[in-house]
Specification:
Blueprint: E1 10-15, H1 23-33, E2 39-44, H2 50-55, E3 64-67, H3 72-78, E4 81-82, H4 84-89, E5 94-98, E6 101-105, H5 108-119, E7 128-132, H6 136-147, E8 152-156, H7 160-170, E9 174-177, H8 182-186, E10 191-194, E11 218-221, H9 230-237, E12 241-243, H10 246-261, H11 269-280
Parallel strand pairs: 1-2, 1-3, 4-6, 7-8, 7-10, 8-9, 10-11, 11-12
Antiparallel strand pairs: 3-5, 5-6
Length: 283
């Protein structure tokens, strides 16, 4: 339940586990910057408790909230209305009310595109992308790429069937490939994006040769712990433009904040430094 002693709108992030979430850092920073009396809190919700939790958030005093693993697909099925991005991606990460109707959206694709717009705006000139991984994050990235006009999206996954499933979801312009095809696929790519957990702290490394990439290619990694992944380090050594994963996390939070608190916040260097300090502490 939202703290009745705290004035203003109340929002949350729920997941299981949830202690690792940086969302309270982001929204807490914006609440302070805009001097908004409100709150944003972590709530650990086990899978069996998620539906009753969702049914009770209005009564508990919340204007809405964020949904993270493992609840994004469950939220997709439980909300009364979904935005276009959620429909395409098949998952909900942001909740809000329109009257009495609980609505769900997905801001991950927006967050990815907004971060690239800020960090490498020429990415929209590209038409061919190689996407590593075929999980939930890949769905958001593929949607962002198609919205930006990419006509050739090559999905690469060690389990080819999962990549094929995404081509059936996203249709024309997408293709499924095994890992062994990477050298040929990279040779004409404008953008390479890692959506897998490979290279993340505590996970196996992502080991691919970037020599085939054209000199104009952009290399993007949605992993943000570590911030400078091995993939980005190798790309930088080759002189390629790189985009880290932290900005996607920051930008995807902005639409929800605006819905709950009525102000469109900016992703600033101060916010980035605030979250980086926490990442450095391993919190």
């Amino acid at each position: 339940m939202a703290d009745p002693q705290t004035a203003g709108p109340h929002a949350f992030v729920c997941g299981h586990p949830i202690a690792h979430s940086r969302s309270p850092l982001i929204h807490g920073h914006w609440l302070a910057v805009h001097q908004i009396p409100g709150s944003y809190e972590r709530i650990d919700v086990a899978p069996l408790d998620f539906e009753p939790f969702l049914r009770g958030i209005a009564e508990a005093g919340f204007a809405g909230g964020n949904v993270t693993l493992p609840h994004k697909e469950a939220a997709f099925h439980l909300v009364g209305r979904r935005d276009t991005a959620a429909e395409m991606i098949g998952a909900v990460n942001t909740l809000w009310f329109e009257g009495a109707t609980l609505c769900g959206g997905n801001t991950d694709a927006y967050g990815y595109a907004a971060h690239l717009d800020a960090s490498a705006p020429h990415w929209r000139n590209g038409r061919t992308a190689v996407v590593l991984g075929a999980g939930g994050a890949a769905r958001a990235i593929i949607h962002a790429l198609q919205e930006a006009g990419y006509k050739d999206v090559r999905i690469v996954n060690r389990t080819l069937d999962r990549a094929t499933e995404l081509t059936l979801r996203f249709g024309g312009g997408t293709s499924a490939h095994g890992w062994q095809e990477l050298p040929v696929l990279l040779a004409s790519a404008d953008l390479l994006v890692n959506t897998s957990a490979l290279g993340m702290t505590g996970k196996p490394p992502l080991e691919i040769a970037l020599e085939p990439l054209p000199d104009h290619a952009i290399v993007s990694d949605i992993v943000y712990a570590p911030l400078r992944t091995d993939l980005l380090a190798v790309a930088e050594a080759r002189g390629l433009a790189t985009v880290d994963g932290l900005g996607m996390l920051l930008h995807q939070a902005a639409p929800g904040f605006e819905r709950w608190f009525g102000v469109r916040p900016a992703v600033t260097d101060a916010l980035r430094s605030h979250v980086l300090a926490d990442l450095g502490n391993g919190a």
